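Protocol step 4 of 5: obtain the predicted structure for the target chain.
Materials: sequence only (see below). No template structures provided, no constraints applied. The aim of this step is simply to have a reference model before the mutagenesis design in step 5. Sequence pasted as it appears in the construct record:
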Amino acid sequence: MTTTIRTLAAAILPLALAGCAGSTALPSLSTGSVSASAPPAAAPVQNNTPTTRALQVGSTSARAAKCGFNFDPVRLKAQFMASETTIGTPVADLGKVEKVYDVAVNGISRGVAEKQDYCTEGKTKEIKEDLTRHLAGDYSPRPTKVAEAKDDGGIFGGFFDGDADVDNGPKIGTPEWWEKQKEKSGK
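Step 4 output (structure tokens):
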């Protein structure tokens, strides 16, 4: 009788261990399939299409011109358009890409024209990085930055913390409030 139990145990034990190890030989419902670790972080999605490239290069050109970088915007546009042709952007779409480029240049140029404090140290560093990439022939959009996950304390995290995130600016209608509105509108 003990031999039969031993034989039966010897046959069942490998099957039980295989189930716990997450083996594909058995159904995946086992303790081995439950994972306590967090899923891997997704890589940032980079939308590298002709349209996004045109927006990126056109806006960089306008921003660099505003901040006084020494480059030839006409040549940059010509090189960008030649690159789009080379990488296989359909001929029918090249007109659209050029229009998007021109709209980006004109829109950004008009948007930053009157901003005297636009060319901060941080902005010029970013513009220089982008312009250098574009002049070297890399017209891809700037990779998006992934925000760090912050512990919010769960579903009710911060609910009882008070008004820490509320902007306690001047009261609506006061002279200080009207001054702040004027500053925001740029007048």
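Step 4 remarks: The chain has six helices and no strands. The mean pLDDT is 76.
Proceed to step 5.
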